Amino acid sequence: GAGVSQSPSNKVTEKGKDVELRCDPISGHTALYWYRQSLGQGLEFLIYFQGNSAPDKSGLPSDRFSAERTGGSVSTLTIQRTQQEDSAVYLCASSPRTSGGVHEQFFGPGTRLTVL
Amino acid sequence: GENVEQHPSTLSVQEGDSAVIKCTYSDSASNYFPWYKQELGKGPQLIIDIRSNVGEKKDQRIAVTLNKTAKHFSLHITETQPEDSAVYFCAASKDSSASKIIFGSGTRLSIRP
Question: How far is CA B45 from the centre of its chain?
């Protein structure tokens, strides 16, 4: 079946511009995560959505970053007034997480963002 | 907050030898510990996980051990093959719907032919 998809796969933008990154999770998955991975680095947690609960935004690095999840499915990560240090691969993952506990995260291929 | 440390950051082993990657975690309430493998240009993929009610779990050439007292867990890969070359991430989480998963910094494993 279809996995997690992300678009665009690559995005090049100029410093100061806004960008929107999209994530389509696996159908039926209630949990959705965004991570940032800088070149050769680990996975930096950004934000987590679980069902209808308030999202955990504790990983967002600044108020230039925001995310939404509409209808419990598609999510959009928005970065306003991009800076060169925002250049990274942005990974989305979904999980069939329930009140019963943690489950495997299924990752998308990522969006490579380059800010010139 | 929760912190997960992972060592080594890079590891090179001869094909056929074993590889061991170690992680420690800070939150004693953590009870779910997955390991992910990331190949070049792809998202990470779960390869094995362990929950705190067991001390060891094995799946073919891959095994994970957990020491809750010391708050560390390890990934063991035996009889390494070229396709094992990748970046491996450990992670820790509390087994509840309100907890996020914290990842280690990753280990780049290279298998020498």
Answer: 11
Average pLDDT for A50-76: 91
CA distance B98 to chain A (A): 8
* pLDDT for the residue numbered B9: 94
Most A CBs within 10 A among B97, B102, B107, B110, hence the mutation to make, goes to: B97
Summarised one tens digit per residue, pLDDT across range B62-99 is 999 999 999 999 999 999 999 999 999 999 988 665 56
For A82-96, what is each residue's pLDDT tens digit? 999 999 999 999 988
A45 touches chain B (CB under 8 A): yes
Backbone angle region of B6, left / alpha / beta, with phi > 0 → left and psi within -120 to 50 → alpha? beta
Between A102 and A43, the higher pLDDT residue:
A43
Average pLDDT over residues A15-26: 97
Would the CB atoms of A110 and B95 count as touching at under 8 Å?
Answer: no
A90 in B contact zone (CB under 8 Å): no
The CA distance from A14 to A17, in Å, is: 6
Residue A37, judged by CB atoms within 10 A of its CB (0-12, 13-18, 19+), counts as buried
Strand pairing category for A44-50 and A19-24: unpaired
Residue with tokens 């696996």: A26
Q: Where are the beta strands (DSSP E) in chain A?
A: 5-7, 10-13, 19-24, 31-37, 44-50, 65-69, 75-79, 88-95, 106-107, 111-115
